[in-house]
Amino acid sequence: MKNLSILVVDDDPVIRRLIQQRLEKANYPVEVAKDGTEASDLLNSKYYDVVLTDLMMPGGIGGIEVLEIAKALHSNTEVVLITAHSSVDTAVEAMKKGAADYLEKPVNFDELFLKLDKIANLKTILRNAQDLQQAMDTTENVASQTIQDLEMRVARLDELLDAVETSLTNTDEDEDVRIAKALALLAKR
Q1: Are both 156 and 96 inside the same structural domain?
Q2: Which of 63, 96, 155, 181 is close enough to 167 for a disulfide, judged by CB 3.0 to 4.6 Å?
């Protein structure tokens, strides 16, 4: 699924440009941000399927904060953190906060593309599940309405049958009159 929109966030212009070029070469729509503040502005103005962000960036907004902002704005945006300072603690913290994955610098592009394929597959599965749920909800609503309509029709037919039975069993009237009334009732339905 090459149509994943991707935001690349890295304070190193060489890494940022390299990642952008490799992703664009693979036909991914890509935008870049030079820091967490610029990323925050972009995230506030546009939806991205994936955010690839450096973990350690100067300024008040680092990779973990970009992750938090992205998830707060769009819970289905997937965030992959990239760092030269790999640690289990940081990875665990990032995953607890909703990161989809974690990459070490220098970026292995084969690994990155595998992670993007995994994200795309997951998004496709989720979209299919949502479509299926919507179809099931629609079917359930239609079935519920049909059942309600049938119940109302059965109730009206029960009333009609009761009226016909009452007419036919009324011994105070002549048999021909009873039959005519019963037929008139049936004709009205």
Answers
A1: no
A2: 181
- Using the 3D structure, point to which of 107, 125, 144 is the last residue of a domain: 107
Alpha carbon 181 to its chain's center: 60
Q: Are strands 50-54 and 101-104 parallel, antiparallel or unpaired?
A: unpaired
**Interval 149-183: pLDDT, tens:** 999 999 998 998 898 998 889 888 888 888 898 89
Query: Are the C-beta atoms of residues 108 and 80 closer than 8 Å to each other?
Result: no
Tell me, yes or no, whether 149 and 102 share the same domain: no
- C-alpha closest to that of 18 among 66, 3, 2, 10: 10
Per-residue confidence (pLDDT) for residue 171, from 0 to 100: 85
Phi, psi of 168 (to 5 degrees): -70, -25
Each residue of 42-70: b (16+ CB within 10 Å) or e?
Answer: bbeeeebbbbbbbbebeeebbbbbbbebb
Please give the structure tokens belonging to residue 79. 């965030």
Amino acid at site 76: N
The alpha-helical segments, DSSP class H, found in 57-108 are 63-73, 88-96
Do 139 and 91 fall within a single domain? no
Name the E strands within the chain: 6-9, 30-33, 50-54, 78-83, 101-104
User: CB of 65 within 8 A of CB of 79?
Assistant: no
Same domain for 12 and 82, yes or no, is yes
